[in-house]
Amino acid sequence: MDKEYAVGAYNINNLEALLAVSEAAVEEKSPAIVAVTPSAIKYGGLAYLSNLVKTAAESVPIPMSLHLDHGEDFEVVSKCVSAGFTSVMIDGSHLDFEGNIALTRKVVELAHPKGVSVEAELGRLAGVEEKTVEEKEAILTDPAAAAEFVKRTSVDALAVAVGTSHGAYKFKGEAKLDFERLKAIREKVHIPLVLHGASSVPAWIIEKATKYGAELGGAKGIPEEHIKKAISLGIAKINIDTDLRLAFTATVRKILANSPKEYDPRKILGPAKDAMKEVVKGKMHLFGSSGKA
């Protein structure tokens, strides 16, 4: 259906990544979610990053929100709520079911009165080292459990585990997402579903990075046709991080290799920002969010 689309959540660590997202959003007329992780906050500083994003959001004529990705505990979530984040994710997927519910409910009770939405995660993303059916079944999201989790927590969005994984090395073999599981979750859960670990790791970026010295053998992502199918089955938010990192790194490597006398950071980081912007624009087309702002 042509009305089905997802909004991208693009992880940033610095000004260049933020500019890539905001410029792409304006050019594509697409809503965008700017996401930061606890490690990004440790690197760039909560006040610096939050105020950068607030400035960008106030400067562009499109909807842009600031999201905490994979909040580790109640303390970091609380700090982000106080800093003016639009939404926060509390990741209790490492806890047992009841522990995850208790932690998520605590965050909901903090965030909702302040108008902040909450994302949680049930199940956890597969790693390439987990091979057996039993291992994978144990970490994927159970549809019935998802329905109970949402009912008991009043969470606003749910990140589901259907076979994706973080990083540039998602699969040893062919990509295999559990679309039947996703369909079953959608039938039981009626809030936005989120897909993490969804970078496609484009071959052209890997080739570019490798040409200029990167060692990325075996890097493999989610095929774009799988992303489209996931959206058709109810995914409404898709997280992207790895593809931006790869585009940034590949471009910096190219410039330093081809222009060994260059020392102006703007002439190194500027093209890297442009490369990330092209990736974001491509994602907006893929997700169907272009023209939706």
Order of helices and strands: EHEHHEHEHEHHEHEHHEHH
Task: Assign a percent range to the helix content.
Answer: 40-55%
Ranges where pLDDT stays below 50 over 5 or more residues in a row are none
Strand content: 5-15%
Label the overall shape.
globular
Number of strands: 8
Rounded mean pLDDT score:
91
Structural class: alpha/beta
How would you characterize the largest beta sheet?
Answer: 8 strands, parallel, barrel
Short description:
It contains twelve helices and eight strands. It has helices at residues 15-28, 38-44, 46-59, 74-82, 97-111, 133-139, 143-153, 179-188, 203-211, 224-232, 242-258, 265-287; strands at residues 7-11, 32-36, 64-71, 87-90, 117-122, 157-160, 193-195, 235-240. It has an eight-stranded parallel β-barrel with strand order 1-2-3-4-5-6-7-8, surrounded by nine helices.
